[in-house]
Amino acid sequence: MAYRKHQTPKQKYVIYKRLSTTKERQTHSFEVQDRIIKSYLNDNPHHILATFEEELSGAKNDRPMLAKALEMCKAHDATLLVAKLDRLSRDVGMVDKVVKNYDLICADMPKADKTMLQMLSVMAEWERDAIAKRISDGVLAAIARGKRPGNRTNHKRKLTTEDSDKGRQTRTNQKQQRMAQLQPQVKSLYNNGERTMAQVADMLNGLGVPTTGKGKWYANTVKRILDFDVAVAA
Question: Which keywords does this chain's UniProt record carry (predicted)?
Answer without folding.
Answer: DNA recombination, DNA-binding
